[in-house]
Design a protein that fits this description.
This is Fe-S cluster assembly protein SufD. Belongs to the iron-sulfur cluster assembly SufBD family. The protein is of the alpha/beta class. The protein has one domain. It contains 6 helices and 16 strands. It has a 16-stranded mixed beta sheet that branches.
Length: 397
C-alpha cells in the first residue's frame, strides 16, 4: 500500500467516525495526568523556544504570586478575587477544556480567580481596567481570570500587564446573548518577563465580541486566543498589534471555532520586527464545522521587517467541513518597506529616516483606530514612537 493510500484510508476512517483528525480537533481534559509536557515537536509548540519558558509549559512550581493586582470598579460592576466554591464553579465557564498541560495545571492548582462580573443589561461607560504589575521575573506563578458579561450588557475590559514576571495564565470570557463586549490585553512587560497565556471566549447568540492583543514588551510572550459560539448570530473581531525587538520572541495563536450557524469572525493582526534575533510567530486557525452553515470568516496577518536579522513565521490555516458558507478567506504577508511609499515621501523633501517612521505609523494606525478606546489608542501611538526610537531604523534596510 502506498503512503497516499494509507493517508486516504486514515481520512476515510475518521470521517466514518464523525470526526476529522487534525490539530484543530484537540481532545481536552481537566485531568492533569492526561497531558504530557511539550517537547517542541508538536505542531502547537514547534515555534516556541521551550527552554526560555522557565518550565511554565511543563513542571515549573506555581509559587505564591508576587504580581500586584489593582483595578477600578465602575458602578454596577463586581471586580473581586474569589476563592473556595465560587472560584471552583468558575472553572470552565467559557467551555474551556484544556488541551495543554499548563492549562490543566492552572485549573487544578490555582485556588483563586480574579472575577470581573458585568450584570445583564448593564451598560458600563468607562473601561474596566485591571493592572497586573510583576515584581519578580524569577518567580514562576500562575493565574486564572474570568470575565463574565450578562445578556444585553455593554462593557470594555482592559488587562494591562507590566513589570517583571514569569506568569502562566488562563483567561476565560463568557459573553451573554446580545451583549456587546470589548476586551483589550496589553503585554507591555519589562525586557526580562515571560508570559504564557491562554484566552478562551464563548460568544452568545447575536452577541458581538472584540478581542485586541497588544504585545510590545517581554523576553518571551506567547498568547493563545480562542473563540467559540454558544448560539447562532454571534460575531468575533480579533485584532492584534506587536513589535518584536532584538532577541525577543512574540507568538500569537488564534483559533476561531465556528461551531454554530450564521456566526462570523474577522481576524486582523499587524506586527513589526527590528533587531538581531527578533522573532514573531502568528498562527491563524479557523475551523468551520459541519453544523456551521451560513458563516463568514476572514483572517489576515501583515508583518513589516525593519532591519536585517529578524525572523517571522506566519501560518494561516482554514479547515472547512461544509460547503454551505457565506464566505471564508485568509491572507498573510511579510515584507520590508514599500519603496514607492518611501520614494514619494523623500521626493517631497522628507529624510529617509523620517519617511520610514511615517510609513511605520501609517502601517499601524488604521488598526489602532479600530480598538475604539481613546486612552489606549493614544498610548499605543506613543509606544510605537518609543519602539522606533530604540532602533537603528534605516541603517540595515
Amino acid at each position: 500500500m502506498t503512503v497516499t493510500d494509507t493517508a486516504r484510508d486514515t481520512v476515510a476512517a475518521a470521517l466514518e467516525q464523525g470526526k476529522v483528525e487534525s490539530h484543530l480537533h484537540p481532545t481536552g481534559s481537566y485531568d492533569v495526568a492526561d497531558h504530557a509536557a511539550p517537547t517542541g515537536r508538536e505542531e502547537t509548540w514547534r515555534f516556541t523556544p521551550l527552554k526560555r519558558l522557565k518550565g511554565l509549559a511543563s513542571d515549573a512550581v506555581f509559587n505564591a504570586s508576587t504580581t500586584d493586582v489593582s483595578f477600578n470598579t465602575p458602578e454596577g460592576v463586581r471586580v473581586e478575587n474569589v476563592t473556595g466554591d465560587e472560584a471552583a464553579a468558575l472553572r470552565g465557564i467559557s467551555g474551556f477544556k484544556p488541551a495543554t498541560l499548563f492549562g490543566a495545571r492552572i485549573l487544578d492548582e490555582v485556588t483563586d480567580t480574579l472575577l470581573v462580573d458585568v450584570p445583564a443589561e448593564a451598560e458600563i461607560a468607562e473601561p474596566i481596567v485591571i493592572n497586573l504589575v510583576g515584581e519578580n521575573a524569577d518567580n514562576t506563578e500562575a493565574g486564572h481570570v474570568v470575565l463574565r458579561f450578562g445578556n444585553f450588557s455593554k462593557a470594555v475590559v482592559v488587562l494591562r500587564h507590566t513589570g517583571s514576571a514569569a506568569l502562566a495564565q488562563v483567561v476565560e470570557i463568557r459573553v451573554g446573548d446580545s451583549a456587546q463586549v470589548s476586551v483589550v490585553s496589553l503585554q507591555d512587560w519589562a525586557d526580562d518577563a515571560t508570559h504564557l497565556t491562554h484566552t478562551e471566549a464563548l460568544v452568545g447568540r447575536d452577541a458581538a465580541y472584540k478581542h485586541t492583543a497588544v504585545t510590545f514588551g517581554g523576553d518571551l510572550v506567547r498568547m493563545d486566543a480562542n473563540v467559540r459560539y454558544s448560539g447562532p448570530g454571534g460575531s468575533a473581531e480579533m485584532l492584534g498589534l506587536y513589535f518584536a525587538d532584538a532577541g525577543q520572541h512574540i507568538e500569537h495563536r488564534l483559533f476561531a471555532d465556528h461551531n454554530q450557524p450564521k456566526t462570523s469572525s474577522n481576524v486582523a493582526y499587524k506586527g513589526a520586527l527590528q533587531g538581531e534575533g527578533a522573532h514573531a510567530v502568528w498562527i491563524g486557525n479557523v475551523l468551520i464545522r459541519k453544523a456551521a452553515e451560513g458563516i463568514e470568516t476572514y483572517e489576515e496577518n501583515r508583518n513589516l521587517i525593519l532591519t536585517d536579522g529578524t525572523l517571522c513565521d506566519s501560518v494561516p490555516n482554514l479547515e472547512i467541513e461544509t460547503g454551505e458558507i457565506a464566505g471564508a478567506g485568509h491572507a498573510s504577508a511579510t515584507a520590508r518597506f514599500d519603496d514607492e511609499q518611501l520614494f514619494y515621501l523623500r521626493s517631497r523633501g522628507i529624510s529617509e529616516k523620517e519617511a520610514q517612521r511615517l510609513v511605520v505609523h501609517g502601517f499601524f494606525n488604521d488598526l489602532i483606530r479600530k480598538i475604539d478606546v481613546p486612552a489606549i489608542e493614544e498610548q499605543l501611538v506613543k509606544t510605537v514612537e518609543a519602539e522606533l526610537s530604540k532602533n537603528v531604523i534605516g541603517k540595515s534596510i
